[in-house]
Inverse folding.
């Protein structure tokens, strides 16, 4: 059967390699793929299919493989590895997929008998009801029985990204790709030659179709050409690299696997994702053979004819000594010839063409060697248990001859591999003589050469290369003489599927092997109205597998065109989308994983926070203390209650470094600030601050912060931590695009200052001790003023402001001095129990005071009027961003949602953030009809100072409802009676704040 | 990924830029004087044509400068890039760009790969 000792120059057969497949040990040679090694060992059954769990074998010999997908537990356990691509190495562990308990006895194959359930659109139809069945019954069932491999449990990045800027990329190093490269040797063009295999030559090595080139043996010519290219000053070669994507602007993405033939090393970047910009792309990526659909065309033992030939010449494996060959075109001549040259004899030759269509060369060969030839015949189907045992040949109408065989080689024609060409948005057209889609016109600087352009005759290759590349500077005409041992002119008869002679539940003819789409599914889909090819594809999932229907999609178009009685060019084709072959997420991720995924920003006080048991919260890229654990057993709730209480009792300190800080300067800075903020800064005294609001042009609150005016030409604005970048971009945009006449410049100074917010009744005394030469009295340092002070050999700025409602100060200090100053503040406040607090306590304290947080109490649909912040709008200003929107009819209407305070009537009850505010006390369980909703809770905290819950809410016509009652829902559909109040719970008259 | 020629920095990958939507939408000089309708058209309504489109870009991860571009939205070709304040090219300047890549219908997905005969 298999020829273990057939000599092949490409497999190193003195290097035996052992590996296991489903726990059993096998031997192969260095250079073998999993598929060629298994064929060597006579293994035909490789996996189970996606839906029906039918037995499947090796169908092809390359990237187009739909069936032979395996998992490799000895590596990262990536699923759906193509056995026809992945090379073996010593100790490799290979497992089959989608079978349970074992490959030979698979329980899921019972699906095959329930197949009417899994017909086209089955997901959409079958699993519609009854209610609750999806979650409990259907989904677990589908997850267990459908699908391919299992996702890996652990993720490890093993890839890097590599960028290229070149003049010319050549995709594919077969005959035409090599000729193109040869033409460009030692020119001024910067060239990248990309080959998906681990050798140059493609078809020259995979077949014996070309005997000599310019009188030299193919291998000699290849060796010389490779040396020539390697020694050239301008051509770089990437092997084991597949171009997966052809984007706009001649941008190509290619994936290189450096581990081919070896175990993927865990610590080395074995995958390289190449991102390439080029001026010209030369696609010489060849063609892919297609199949023909017939009854049970998926049985292990059915293989594409050219793939069979490739196993012989490339791997030295003859998958079967006497296969039956089934064809409708000239390309199988070389397979017959190869088998005979090896002393093997095909069991039978079945050709769908008329005798006069078949080349004399082929007929003579069959005749001389007494090979039974069935002309103008077709394969009706094949039968066998887990493998091909018998094929049925139909000569005339239902005149069926049965032939015993274990292998059937099929060729349904050749498809130019136009995947990349159409990705580049080039247009293709249908060639009704060769029955192929081939490139028609390029959209970018794309040139196709060889069989991808529909040129199946090697004789014309050099002529084509010269014709299409002579426009490139410095290129000379190539003289190439080939001695060819192949068909003269490609010839084919249209045949997409053959009709079933017998009907049985088990018998199926497949249009897409990987997704288990049958030809019947296609017919049914058309009957149900999915006659547009893009719809049909999605409804049937045809060609939507990891192989993207490389050997089958054109067949499906053929079948559909027959049903619709249309020409294939009218039916069209679905769009080919990247990637050409599967790209693992780890290749895309590159180095951007874990810590490198997004930078972490830390304040200068970070080490202190860590030492003091801070629990951190991510705010954008910043690490901010969320709360500080006093002891290991302290919960977050306890910590926040303790911190909040302490701030109001003595004092607390918050690391506010992360707040955005933007410096605005220029002759027209005042005018500009008056335009981007709602407030009027004209009369603001120098060296004082203002709580300021920024709106979008739609009138909605965008950001808030304190704007400090140094003078009319110089401002510093603070922003929310998360909004810093957006606010700066927003200012830049208006400065550049709307008011370029204003002399104003802005820059982020967030990192230039560390900021501490110290607040609480004792904050004044503490700071007076730290900075003994500064007068912090209310008269000398009133609320919302700031000043610069000399500190050591630097300068600091202190602003009197507060986000807690207590008297408070913000200290701005260069980062270098920050940690020492922070510790100094603690040193001087030992007797006051100065408490460090985090963002959660900050939120609680501001909520007690009724201060909003943009993004929590607002959501992009809230205006300053809705927030009762009318006082912040500079009424006398002629214009500012968003002003005109504030008088739009929708904004001024009465029944908008407005911000109010909410207090539970029963002080022991807790309100949850996000809950609804409703009018009625009771809710039906379960809820049967919509409940009228007045609004929702935006903030809610348990106030340790007041000893009850305080909340804020956005309620329809909220201001009118103040003083009234309402109900807040709870997760268990109970309600809490609440009172609607003004949103200010602690110190509503600002007595403490201004003291 | 597009290659965009920043008028200040030169050709860079699209990932360095942000798109700013339709260009030449002037902010009303006197917002108070325009009607609700005119104002809402300025704030909310933007053209989204298939074909030649005047749009704004900003070199976010670069010089942070805004500039204008003319792009054929159906082919993604950038036909012209010009600085703010420069005279925009007229439609007549773009005779050589296909209206759509394949002569496909004026409306619809544009997902045609096969040359219409
Ligand atoms: Zn730039």
């Amino acid at each position: 059967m298999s020829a273990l000792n057939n000599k092949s120059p490409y497999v190193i057969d003195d290097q035996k390699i052992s590996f296991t497949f489903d726990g059993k040990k096998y031997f192969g040679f260095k250079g073998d793929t999993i598929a060629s090694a298994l064929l060597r060992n006579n293994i035909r059954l490789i996996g189970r299919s996606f839906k029906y769990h039918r037995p499947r074998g090796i169908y092809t010999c390359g990237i187009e493989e739909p069936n032979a997908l395996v998992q490799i537990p000895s590596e990262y356990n990536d699923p759906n590895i193509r056995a026809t691509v992945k090379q073996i190495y010593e100790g490799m562990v290979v497992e089959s997929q989608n079978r349970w308990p074992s490959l030979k006895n698979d329980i899921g194959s019972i699906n095959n008998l329930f197949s009417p359930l899994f017909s086209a659109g089955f997901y959409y139809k079958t699993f519609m009801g009854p209610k609750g069945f999806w979650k409990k019954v259907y989904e677990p069932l589908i997850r267990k029985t459908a699908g391919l491999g299992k996702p890996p449990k652990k993720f490890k990045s093993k890839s890097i990204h590599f960028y290229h800027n070149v003049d010319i990329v050549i995709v594919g190093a077969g005959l035409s790709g090599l000729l193109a490269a040869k033409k460009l040797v030692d020119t001024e063009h910067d060239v990248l030659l990309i080959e998906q295999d681990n050798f140059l030559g493609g078809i020259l090595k995979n077949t014996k179709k070309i005997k000599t080139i310019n009188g030299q043996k193919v291998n000699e010519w290849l060796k010389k050409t490779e040396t020539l290219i390697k020694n050239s000053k301008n051509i770089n070669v990437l092997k084991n690299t597949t171009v997966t994507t052809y984007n706009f602007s001649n941008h190509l993405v290619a994936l290189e696997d450096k581990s081919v033939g070896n175990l993927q090393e865990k610590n080395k970047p074995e995958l390289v994702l190449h991102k390439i910009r080029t001026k010209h792309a030369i696609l010489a990526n060849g063609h892919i053979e297609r199949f023909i659909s017939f009854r049970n065309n998926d049985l292990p033992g059915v293989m594409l004819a050219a793939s069979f030939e490739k196993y012989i010449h490339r791997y030295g494996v003859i998958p079967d000594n006497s296969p039956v060959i089934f064809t409708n075109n000239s390309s199988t001549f070389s397979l017959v010839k190869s088998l005979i040259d090896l002393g093997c004899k095909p069991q039978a030759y079945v050709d769908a063409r008329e005798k006069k269509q078949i080349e004399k060369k082929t007929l003579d060969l069959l005749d001389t060697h007494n090979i039974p030839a069935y002309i103008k015949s077709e394969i009706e189907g094949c039968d066998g248990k887990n493998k091909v045992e018998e094929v049925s040949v139909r000569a005339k109408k239902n005149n069926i001859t049965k032939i015993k065989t274990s292998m059937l080689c099929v060729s349904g024609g050749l498809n130019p591999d136009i995947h990349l060409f159409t990705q580049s948005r080039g247009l293709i057209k249908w060639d009704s003589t060769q029955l192929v889609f081939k490139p028609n016109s390029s959209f970018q600087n794309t040139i196709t050469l060889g069989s991808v352009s529909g040129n199946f005759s090697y004789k014309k290759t050099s002529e084509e290369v010269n014709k299409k590349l002579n426009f490139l500077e410095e290129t000379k005409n190539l003289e190439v003489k080939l001695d060819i041992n192949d068909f003269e002119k490609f010839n084919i008869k249209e045949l997409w599927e053959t009709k079933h002679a017998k009907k049985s539940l088990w018998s199926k003819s497949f249009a897409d092997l990987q997704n288990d789409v049958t030809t019947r599914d296609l017919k049914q889909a058309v009957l149900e109205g999915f006659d547009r090819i893009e719809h049909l594809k999605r409804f049937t999932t045809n060609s939507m597998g990891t192989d993207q229907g490389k050997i089958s999609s054109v067949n499906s178009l053929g079948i559909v065109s027959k049903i619709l009685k249309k020409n294939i060019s009218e039916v069209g084709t679905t769009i080919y989308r990247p990637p050409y072959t599967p790209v693992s997420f780890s290749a895309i991720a590159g180095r951007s994983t874990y810590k490198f995924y997004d930078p972490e920003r830390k304040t200068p006080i970070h080490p202190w926070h860590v030492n003091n048991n801070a629990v951190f919260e991510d705010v954008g890229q910043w690490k901010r203390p969320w709360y500080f654990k006093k002891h290991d057993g302290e919960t977050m709730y306890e910590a926040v209650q303790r911190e909040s209480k302490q701030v109001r009792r003595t004092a607390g300190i918050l690391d506010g470094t992360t707040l955005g800080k933007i410096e605005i300067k220029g002759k027209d800075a005042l005018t500009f600030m008056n335009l981007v903020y709602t407030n009027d800064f004209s009369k603001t005294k120098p060296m004082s601050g203002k709580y300021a609001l920024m709106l979008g042009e739609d009138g909605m609150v965008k950001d808030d912060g304190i704007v400090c005016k140094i003078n009319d030409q110089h401002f510093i604005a603070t922003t929310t931590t998360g909004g810093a970048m957006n606010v700066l971009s927003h200012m830049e945009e208006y400065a550049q695009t709307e008011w370029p006449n204003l002399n104003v410049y802005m820059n982020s100074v967030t990192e230039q200052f560390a900021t501490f917010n110290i607040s609480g009744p004792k904050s004044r005394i503490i700071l007076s001790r730290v900075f003994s030469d500064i007068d912090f009295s209310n008269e000398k340092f009133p609320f919302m003023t700031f000043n610069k002070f000399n500190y050591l050999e630097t300068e600091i700025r202190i602003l009197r402001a507060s986000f807690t409602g207590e008297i408070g100060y913000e200290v701005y200090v260069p980062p270098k001095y920050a940690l020492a100053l922070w510790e100094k503040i603690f040193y001087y406040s030992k007797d006051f129990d100065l408490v460090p607090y985090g963002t959660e306590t900050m939120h609680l304290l501001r909520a007690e005071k009724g201060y909003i947080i943009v993004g929590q109490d607002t959501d992009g649909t809230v205006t300053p009027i809705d927030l009762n912040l009318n006082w912040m709008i500079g009424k006398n200003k002629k214009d500012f961003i968003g002003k005109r929107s504030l008088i739009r009819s929708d904004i001024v209407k009465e029944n908008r949602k407005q911000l109010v305070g909410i207090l539970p009537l029963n002080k022991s009850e807790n309100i949850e953030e996000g809950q609804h505010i409703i009018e009625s006390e009771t809710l039906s369980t379960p809820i049967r009809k919509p409940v009228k909703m007045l609004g929702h809770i935006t903030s809610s905290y348990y106030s340790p100072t007041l000893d009850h819950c305080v909340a804020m809410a956005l309620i329809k016509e909220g201001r009118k409802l103040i003083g009234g009652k309402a109900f807040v829902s709870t997760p268990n559909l109970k309600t809490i009676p609440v009172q609607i109040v003004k949103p200010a719970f602690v110190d509503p008259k600002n007595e403490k704040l201004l003291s | 990924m597009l290659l965009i020629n920043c008028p200040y920095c030169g050709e860079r990958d699209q990932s360095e830029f942000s798109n700013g939507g339709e260009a030449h939408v002037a902010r009303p000089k006197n917002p108070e004087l325009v009607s609700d309708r005119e104002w809402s058209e300025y704030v909310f309504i933007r053209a989204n044509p298939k074909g030649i489109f005047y749009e704004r870009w900003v070199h976010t991860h670069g010089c942070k400068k805004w500039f204008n571009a003319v792009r054929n939205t159906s082919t993604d070709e950038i036909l012209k890039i010009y600085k703010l304040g420069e005279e925009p090219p007229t439609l007549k300047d773009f005779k050589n760009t296909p209206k759509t890549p394949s002569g496909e219908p004026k409306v619809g997905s544009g997902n045609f790969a096969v040359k219409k005969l």
In short: The two ends of chain B are 31 Å apart (CA to CA).
